[in-house]
Structure to design on (296 residues):
């Protein structure tokens, strides 16, 4: 699998990373063992989790804790009680890092990320200090921010963060104009989340809160390629994200080994041609509304 250098971190990461949100509630240890070990064997080397992703950290530690030299390990902190109940106290962040290390069966993380806190919370500085102290102590190698909009732009411009995890996809392109140029200028590693827009065009009747805004946008965008079969349309969407300047890797979540194998085959086709990519960008510029902001 193709790899790219993740900004100033020096990490050479696979263009397809694994997002662990789904396995936290939908998978057994046996299934995760098969899924992750086969993915590592096939060239994937970046795994991203969070303390609020159910049992994902424990499952990762149990399945591949013995293969720490084979992959980069990322997690997020700030939502110990769940995404709807954030607590941004420095004590919680410190406790979260220690807890993640134990769950993941490691003595260090390659990247620890603040998980979608606001610009106001970032400006206080005490949260960032916790991450910087963890880096100084060797518990983490790099610090990152995961989020969108004004907070992500502040994080990029602050000079504290090595990486940014942000929404980039066919239905979520605010970052391409607002944030990625600054990230490129500062050599920040960019990890694309939600890179296939929750495949919202394949599940029009599914009204999960994450999918709903993308469904609404895609009904208006009406990209021609969405009328193709599932494999072709998902492939085009994923390759669009990975063709975006400044994006180094895209994390896709699944609890099914077969889905991982399908995504890897799509990525192997390489970037979109410049005309293909520009058609999607041009359609966005023509149709997108000002309120179509990045989705956390």
């Amino acid at each position: 699998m193709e790899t790219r250098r993740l900004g100033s971190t020096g990490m050479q990461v696979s263009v397809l990373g694994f997002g662990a949100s789904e396995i936290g509630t939908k998978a057994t240890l046996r299934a995760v063992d098969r899924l992750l070990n086969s993915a590592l064997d096939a060239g994937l080397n970046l795994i991203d989790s969070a303390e609020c992703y159910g049992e994902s950290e424990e499952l990762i530690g149990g399945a591949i804790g013995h293969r720490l030299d084979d992959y980069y390990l990322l997690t997020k902190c700030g939502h110990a009680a769940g995404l709807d109940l954030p607590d941004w106290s420095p004590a919680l962040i410190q406790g979260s890092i220690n807890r993640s290390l134990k769950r993941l069966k490691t003595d260090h993380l390659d990247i620890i990320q603040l998980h979608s806190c606001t610009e106001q919370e970032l400006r206080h500085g005490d949260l960032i200090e916790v991450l910087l102290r963890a880096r100084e102590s060797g518990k983490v190698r790099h610090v990152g921010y995961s989020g969108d909009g004004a907070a992500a732009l502040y994080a990029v411009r602050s000079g504290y963060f090595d990486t940014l995890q942000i929404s980039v996809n066919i239905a979520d392109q605010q970052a391409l104009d607002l944030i990625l140029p600054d990230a490129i200028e500062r050599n920040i590693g960019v990890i694309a989340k939600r890179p296939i827009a929750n495949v919202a065009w394949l599940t029009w009747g599914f009204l999960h809160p994450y999918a709903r805004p993308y469904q609404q946008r895609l009904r208006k965008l009406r990209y021609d390629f969405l009328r193709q079969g599932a494999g072709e349309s998902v492939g085009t969407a994923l390759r669009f994200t990975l063709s975006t300047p400044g994006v180094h890797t895209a994390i896709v979540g699944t609890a099914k080994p077969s889905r991982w194998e399908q995504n890897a085959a799509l990525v192997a086709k390489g970037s979109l041609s410049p005309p293909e990519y520009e058609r999607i960008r041009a359609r966005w510029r023509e149709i997108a509304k000002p309120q179509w902001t990045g989705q956390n």
